[in-house]
Amino acid sequence: MQDLVIKGARVVDGTGTAPYSADVSVTEGRITAVGPDVGRARRTVDAEGALLTPGFVDIHTHYDGQATWDPVLTPSSLHGVTTVVMGNCGVGFAPAARDRHDWLIGLMEGVEDIPGSALSAGISWEWETFPEFLDALDRRTFTMDLGTQVPHGAVRAYVMGERGARNQPATPDDIAAMKAIVKEGVAAGALGFSTSRTLTHKAIDGEYVPGTFAAEDELFGIGEALQELGTGVYELAPAGAAGEDVNAPAKEIAWMRRLSKAIGRPVSFALLQIDSVPDLWRELLELSAADDAQLYPQVASRPFGMLISLESLHAFGDHPSYVELALLPLPERVARLRDPAVKARILAERPEPEDILASMVRTFPERLYPLAAHNPDYEPAPETSLTFQAAATGRDPMELLYDLLLEDDGRNVLMMPLLNYAGNNLDAQREMLTHPRAVLGLGDGGAHCGFICDASLPTTMLSHWARDRSRGERLPLEHVVRMMTRDTARLYSLGDRGVIAPGMRADLNLIDFDRVALHRPEMLHDLPGGGRRLVQRADGYLATFVHGTQVFANGEHTGDLPGRLIRGPRP
Q1: Are residue 368 and residue 259 in the same domain, yes or no?
Q2: 3-class secondary structure for 510-531?
Q3: What sections of the protein cross the membrane (predicted)?
Q4: At what angle are helices 172-188 and 152-160 packed, to 10 degrees?
Q5: Please, which residues bridge with residue 445 across strands?
Q6: Has residue 568 been placed in a domain?
Q7: Per residue in 288-297, pLDDT tens?
Q8: 10 Å Cβ neighbour count for 31?
């Protein structure tokens, strides 16, 4: 008698094999059989016609603070994710000297746009060392499993104090001390080490992330911790990743290849398409696979950009007449903005000084695309842009934008792609997603709360790439599922998940493939202290199981929390 049998599912097992019909049985959190006759069970789920996939493994999240107060780990858990890896990009909350708590919060707030007030209210600081941080997580339960990495920024400031925080050069003694902390953290169960070198990552005080300018002796010296332990991934946001220096990425690939060969460990880095050099990504992909180095570029499934709305960022946020209304509750603010006199005044104003981001929105109306309330299109055609619509109707683009922001009672949202959309299509992205070294990442679950909401990338993979894409070739469903399951699990040596096969963890998604669809992102104020964050829900997820326990039913949490901290690699 099994604990659970899922009958008649269309199984996409995570190996890249084409879908096939089978029953799947589960006992004590493990898959016991896959086939036509798997025996009886205490609970039987009729899955006739539904997809059954492994639970999705998201390797690029920032739940380092949220995991201490939110066991559900939304929004990732809303999209079939059953395992996350956090501690990316060199930022996190351990090790944490007692006088560095506020500084670590400011670092995370500046780099990852998580409200500092929410982090201050939510984090209980039960730790100082990294092993103590793992112990604090180990005392908690979640809707999914989570693993973490040792962040360079926190380590550097812990060892070097203000010298480390201000990016001064590390001495040999500093490097030895940092290596010891990273080795201690990985030995205690961290899945790797992370750092950041991009100039777009700054603390709330404007200082670059500690380690941004680290010399090779520091980068390689810390990496030796992974070599000596024979485990762990070296993850980074490389210099030039967001286009701030188009000559930097190739140089970064060169030292990353040497590092990977020197320490014998995988190195994984962010890879995005940059408008000013739209084909550079192809060169970087080929360089990353040029020899026996273990380089794994992390790629996304849609454009990377900003969400434009009255509740996040928009073109009028620095206009004096809007500033007077900005703190009003949304319904009252919308009512005032609909006043023709207020509209005329705001449109006529030229703010001085200008907010950089608001100015960017005003400058590039051809890069603004409305998102539908249901199943929004993340590969919009140029003729759907604000510029095209304004020209077609004989209107000023900013006046049209003003009216669009007021639609749906002020909850309308537009997308402004900044990266991964140089050709106004996702052809380059498709090529990235099919490269043998590329892994799916960059969803940033838990981060960028104010104007990015990419934790929903798994749903985009299913709905857009495997089913709906009309402006180019799609991707086979089995390829899409493998990228989100076996491939990401394998990179982090989580060999017990990511595939539907006997003996594997019963982390599973039962999906109505025809109904899979995103909702438009919405702003919630549910972080500690009423902090805001964008959340995007989805349709089509019938059930999600973690270790054999159902944690979601039709998009709603069941109340069960079988997820645990992952300590170290899994055979």
Answers
A1: no
A2: EECHHHCEEECCEEEEEEHHHE
A3: none
A4: 130
A5: 61
A6: no
A7: 998 889 999 9
A8: 24
